[in-house]
Shedu protein SduA C-terminal domain-containing protein
Amino acid sequence: MTSEILKTKTRTKEIYHAVSTDPKFDVKSREVFKKKPYEIVFPFNRQGKQKYSLISEIHFDGVSRLDLKGQRGMTRGYGFTQDTVPVVSILNESFSAIAKVVISNKPTSIDRRKGEFILNIEDYKTIYSTLRPKNQKHSKDLRIAINNILAQAGGLGLRAKKIPYVAGSLKGTLREVASSGGKLSDSDSAALLDFAQNKIENYDVDAATLIHTKEKIDKVYFEKVISRFEKLLAIKKGVGAKKLEQRWHYFFKDNSWIFSYLFAAPHFLFQDEYYVGGQKGTGKEARYADFIYKNKLIDSATIIEIKTHKTKILHNTAYRVSGRVYPISSDITGAINQVLDQKNTLLKNYSSVAQGDFEVFDPKCIVVAGTIGSIPKERIKSFDMFRSNLRNIEVVCFDELLSKAKLLLSHFMKSKTTKAKKKKK
């Protein structure tokens, strides 16, 4: 039996020894300082020898050992539990001269001169919270695996068991993916989304936690979309107009909600690259709209034609030498004529191509091209007058769409913050 006794008492500290009768040993086990929150333990094994090959001391500088999970008590010889002992293995493998582990509020670091490994308290807690569920799951999985093997063998009256969920295991797995720089597979991503959207009612999940988590996911999603939008807008050269237009097409197809905010009434993406008429076989005469959006309430259609952010909006020279009116570029007028041709073709072929999917009384047309930021201030008036006088055709710039998306994100975050403050009150 092992017990701990106060062996020496000085003005600054108390020194304790672990004493055992079988096997017989008397070793220094702990030092407790009086004038500061500092404690040192000297881990020992069942024979009273140093527990670890290199690490001989664990210091607790400004932190309470008793409040820490993952630390063994005196009867087990002090030191790390199964959930934190990998720290020792890492140190043995990587730093042969380290004899002390100091758990403190200081940043995690190595002091080779003193032979110390300083482990920040928060990093220590992260190690514990990551490894604990893994060890629990591993232990349970082993027991269940043995139980199921014996149950299958028969004759013992055992029933096969299902492997249970262990709290924190999913968090640990996701942290591993993030730290490795890896990416969730499509099937794993789909499973997470399916769980969040459809299966959550089958699980005992706290509603407030779920809402808070969803808000975080929404915020990250919006920020990623905006970041991708900005990267596309930043392309100045090196990509041809056709390829660039294709990139924008894929972006808006993936994030169709962006166009939905151009409408007063609720709209949704009905189809991209929609065939509106012409001879499909030849390809030359066939007409395709980039996007068809549908009014959710009255089923009316809107045709959207996209160009690129590099599309020129105005000519560089004024209409008259002394005037301040700048003519619209042929790229913009060409895009408008193109979308009007798509509209005209759709109206003529409505009965054969639409087949009642939507109504086309007088479809609105939207052209997305260029950027407002590329127009000098004194010329913006020319563009604004032109587009404000178009009938049932709207010309929108790419940076205007980005501003709408950013505004949506700011309103979204402001709304969530306000709700959170109200709940606290």
